[in-house]
Amino acid sequence: MKRILIAAVVVIAGGLFFAQYQMTSTVRDQLDKTVQLASFYGQLSYDDVSVTPTGNLEISGIRFSPHTVDDSIRMDKLVLETDNPWVLYTLSDELRSGHVPDHLALNVVGLRIDPHGPLMQAAVERQGGEGMMTQLGLAGCGDHSRNAGSATGGAVDIIDMSLGYQQTQGGSQLDILSRVTIHGQNTLTTQLTLDPGGALNAFNGLQSARSVALKSAEFQIRDQGAVQQGLEDCARETGMSVEAFQKHHLKAWRAVWSKHALAPDDALANAYKQYIEHPGSTLELTIEPFPPISTEDRYLSTDPDYLSGRLNPKVGIDGGPLKPFRISQTETTAAAGEPATGSLAEPPEPKPAAAAPQTAREAPTGPATIAVNELNRHMHQALRIVLNSGKVLEGRLQAVEGQRLQLQRRMFGGNMVVPVNYSDIQTIQRQ
């Protein structure tokens, strides 16, 4: 019996060794072909290929230097993560037969790149310069030169990245998780929960499903030094103290929103204020679209009022309770570096009291004016709605629900049904 057990162990160990050798050899052959193809663009090299006991495939010591510029990208490891060795060894056959594993992830460990080198500068130029998110982060910081060095004091950013998925609930739910960590700066984590609408297929991925729908999304940014380093760099750039620049930045942050004709409400502004005033915090944003955003949706409005109602966004700080927030469209704009009216740091001077706007509940009952409690008698009729902000919405009344109505509007070449909160309405009239 003992000899049988020993023989079995030897056979299993030999089988695992052969499978590992075969897999690493196949991967090396493919990598060598990739190195040859890449030689037209630059010098690509790697150190080793290995398989871990947990079922991960690792390629270590990756380096790429393009011929056209004096720059390079280095990576400690590129890891294909699976649930176990069996999944890894049978992965190629399973994919060829159209089967998708319950879990896969691709991890980049120790990516080293110069944020001010030619490669990154070319990437920024292709993006068309600074986007709105970059403008918000650098609001009030002079010529935006605070990125002259990384938060760790070196010239090279060290980045870890992960992108993976997990099928749950018997394949009826798909979770997609990504995480990007810039050492000494921050970690951005994103999790999307999808209803795939059917079984996944290796040949065409999500396209094989009947209708993919986004059920929820979570975004977390955990500060690991970027906030404090940014405040210090920008304070030095603008000649202010750190405390003074905090207030200046919050004003300029408001001004960037205003420049894009948008206005965040107090819930979002206060959460961001806490994040900036307490370095090391974690800012969390979530959305739960209702109904879920589906690939069958022919049109999706970019109107912020519509999105705030459809996406049900919430914000929180450091694991505290999540609070609903809204982003509204405005007519007023301001330069990105100038104080905006109603900033967090210094509230505007109080103005003389004015007569409160007449709401839909208090609207006169003339022949062309409709009160909220009368809406049920005007289903599918054309309405003209004036919001408290002065914006005018026109469309057909589709539904009356709790504290809001549903209005069908002609948008983006088609018809869309958008929610309108009663609290935002000044008057309702028939067209």
Tell me what the structure shows.
With 431 residues, this protein is of the alpha+beta class. The model is unreliable at 145-154 and 333-367 (pLDDT under 50). Strands 1, 2, 3, 4, 5, 6, 7, 8, 9, 11, 12, 13 and 14 form a 13-stranded antiparallel sheet that branches. Strands 19-18-17-16-20 form a five-stranded antiparallel sheet. It has a two-stranded antiparallel sheet with strand order 10-15. The longest helix has 37 residues, at 2-38. A hairpin with a 3-residue loop joins strand 7 and strand 8 (186-195). Among the domains are: 22-129; 360-430, SH3 type barrels, CATH 2.30.30. It is globular, with a radius of gyration of 28 Å. It has nine helices and 20 strands.
Poorly predicted runs are 145-154, 333-367
**Largest sheet data:** 13 strands, antiparallel
Given the structure, what is the number of helices? 9
The quaternary organization reads as single chain
What is the tally of beta strands?
Answer: 20
Strand content: 25-35%
Helix residue percentage: 25-40%
Class by SSE composition: alpha+beta
Query: What is the general shape?
Result: globular
Rg is 28 Å
Could you report the average pLDDT, rounded to the nearest whole number?
Answer: 81
Sequence of secondary-structure elements: HEEEEHHEHHEEEEHHEHEEHEEEEEEEE
Distance between the termini: 92 Å
